[in-house]
Amino acid sequence: MSSSSPSRGSRRSGGSVLANRDFRLYFFGNLISSSGTWLQNVAQGVLVLQITHRSAMVGAVQAATFVPIMLLALHGGQLADRFDRRKLLIGSQVLAVAATAGLAVLAATHRIGVPAIAVVAVLLGIQYAVAIPAAQAMLPGLVSREQLGEAVGYSSITYNLARAVGPLLATVAIGSLGFGLAFGLNSLSFVALAAAVAVIHLRPEGQAVAAGRGSIGEGIRYAWSNRTLRSLLLIISAISIATDPVFTLSPAFAHQVFGRATSDAGLLVAGFGGGAIVAALALGRLFRAAPARRWVVGAAGTAGMVAGMALFAVAGTFWLGIGSLVIAGMGYLLAITSWTTGLQETTSNELRGRVMALFTLCFLGTRPIGAGLDGLLADALSPRIAALLVLLPLVVAGVFLIPAARPRAASLRAVPPAAGDVPAA
User: Fold this and answer.
1) pTM for this model (two decimals)
2) Domains plus CATH for the chain?
């Protein structure tokens, strides 16, 4: 069967999206790969803190992953609109396997240092800049339009289930196996996604249609000229910055604030991911809700996330901190699923790669700002104050941008712009 031919499961518009063979393969492959990524995120942060005893260095290494995303994501989106998205995704996984395997060998032989960790972080950032726009643009080709909201929801489950499983694996692996095997497990996890993508079949909606055409600027103008897209992208940026303390500062919160071992940072991150999973499983039907209803859910989820992150920043005990992150994770899942589905539904296919590259830039490319700022504020003031300060942009977004993101009928038609219809500014 050619890649343009939909599989039997992909033609179905009813029932659970997991009944779709192609989406199911992608879901579980991505789950394994993402779990490995979060295992490495936590292990990497713990190792850097153990070597340097400085939160700012943890933030700097986190930023090393996301600076390439900030610089290259738009080019990755352009590639996703020009070339075979499956091949781009598989190639990026091969790069990730090689980079993380090298890090595992260095850790196992006790020759690892912060420079080596930072170099691998940069290489992973480069592959993310290609892989994420390609994967996001490919998603509508795995399911029917009626299942798109549910598919985005399950993709969020993947990401957040990985946030729960990966850090727990990191806590066990660091304590019983060592950093070398922890990084090695992540290297193997990338193989699962590459193997899954190699055997799936894409509907036309998931394939590049602008071979040899289309500029980065065209994608930016298209997104910025649409009030809904513009507002959604800015909201997603604020969400990314607000959640950064969960990852960058979790070792500092565990050790300096709560007096626990730095490896318990994995439990904090797992609490956030666990809350997201609870929300997803309890409210799965909302993935298929009408856009107007999803907007309400997204607004409520954003408010819940703000409340949970604020409570985490002032929590007096470790377990209250975990409970606060469960609340924040629940709100995060509802918010990011609603806003990301809005992006997918509002974007035309020939510009989807570039618009989802902007999503990648806003969701992950802002992490260098958040991670660097978190680390500096935590060292200069305290982890608690740092977590509160980076929450402020999301409060502003909630007041001014969420009302502007309310879906309109015209924005949901996702009509592709003609060559002369893209505004100059």
Assistant:
1) 0.73
2) 16-412 (1.20.1250.20)
